[in-house]
Amino acid sequence: MNTTGLLVGTLDAVLDSTSKVAPFRILHQTPDSQVYWSIACGSSREEITEHWEWLEHNVMKTLSVFDSNEDITSFVQGKIRGLIAEEGKDFFVKEDDPEKFREGLMKFEKCFGLPEQEKLITYYSCSYWKGRVPCQGWLYLSTNFLSFYSFLLGAEIKLIISWDEVSKLEKTSNVILTESIHVCSHGEDHYFSMFLRISETFLLMEQLANYAVRRLFDKETFENDPVLHDPLQITKRGLESHAHSEQFSAFFRLPKEESLKEVHECFLWVPFSHFNTHGKMCISENYICFASQDGSLCSVIIPLREVTGVDKADPPNKGVSISTKGKTAFRFTEVRDFGLLVAKLRMKCNAAASPQHVISTEVATGSASDSPKDFGAGQSKMGQRDNSKTVSTEALMTVYHPQDAENLNSKMLKEKMKEQSWNILFAERGHGVSMFRTKKIRDLVVRGIPEALRGELWLLFSGAVNDMASNPGYYAELVEKSFGTCTLATDEIERDLRRSLPEHPAFQGDTGISALRRVLTAYAFRNPQIGYCQAMNILTSVLLLYAKEEEAFWLLVAVCERMLPDYFNRRIIGNIHLFFYLS
Q: pTM value?
């Protein structure tokens, strides 16, 4: 054995300051929880004592104002994450040091012997757990592989996992590992911990694993993306930006084309609760969004199409006021560079001031105004086909089940009580896409959305209202283009039309059947990869009962492509579970 090589390898791992594991830590545990959060770490007793004293003076004195242990945990997490973000700014500059990355690249190429075209994206110091023993080393993330290398006191550990062999990827916490990343491949479990910024690491791992799956099962989409198609174009910064945009769009249910441009920490004034909630303002091409991070579960979505004015408000507190068509003014404070932000938002609003899509626009004069008895009477199948381009502008339930206000049974009374609860909430928190979304809304949804409000609220909370507003005239154009097409999907649709809620009067005549045919055929034309799958007819039938035809189409898009993207799918992609959340 080469003793010199052994010594050099050992010293390289032990003396590298970024690969040491701090022997002292301060953990936070919520009572009755098995999860511990790492709050601080130190290399000596003096250092950890200094951290403890800072916590006593700056954090612990504030905890008495909170009513629950969960609120305390949320506050402490937010406080520590804010400090890490502030202190980590200088580290980001150092991390991008090309000389240091070149050194890491040389180690990566020497240790693993992967093909020359394999591109290293980034690498991290961490611990790899073999049983209950942590092995300190380096985790390398490249375009096709997750690799780990450790060489300590003569013991070498080398691990190479192809991203397309990962069957499970998640962040976990337990008593031994406060926070770790769990990777499962070929039935074997691998745990990595002791990351400086575990959320960032997990985000990149998730992106690379997703790309590997898409490369295997969605080659057409993958090849149409020039950045993803050429591995040399994949960068750490690009992966992070793409991941943040995906999380942003998913969290606020926005069109997938939206990309996150700016994030500002600030406070939002909540008028009905009379307090400022702390969180993040997220800005994309067409939306200003806010999500609280202090446990209040408050969020707001402001489309630029709804904004009527952006002004400076309360300059000493760095305030920004945003007024909307609904006559609601949102007041943000403690916004860094608030003057520059106001100028940027004004420019965005001016650019978005072109005529917008009105959701209630009638694409064509529908037949919903006629009585149900007139529809389907003596019409042939050819007649139904001729009517297939006429877009209905009313929800079928309003035609076939009009409410009788004079004869209310117990079920209808319950519905009226639910409606009243929602109307009170609308008066307090606003009505429409820019309403304040809080835990109260979630509670009302769990209790059940009243029939009279289902179409409106489904559109709102699924994000379909934003898809529809961003694509005026799109559905009518699809109906026109898909009319008369004959494919496997249209054959299957025709076969299932009469099986869609056949007991409901709305689908016993031409009105409902024609609307159902148009929506399903238009969607199959829009998304040929899915086309038409069984049960889509049942789902669309229910949507048509409570929503107008164009609204039902966009609700179907939201379900199939955003809310349950792999549920209606002809392909079996496999059992890969990728868990993520908005940090």
A: 0.68
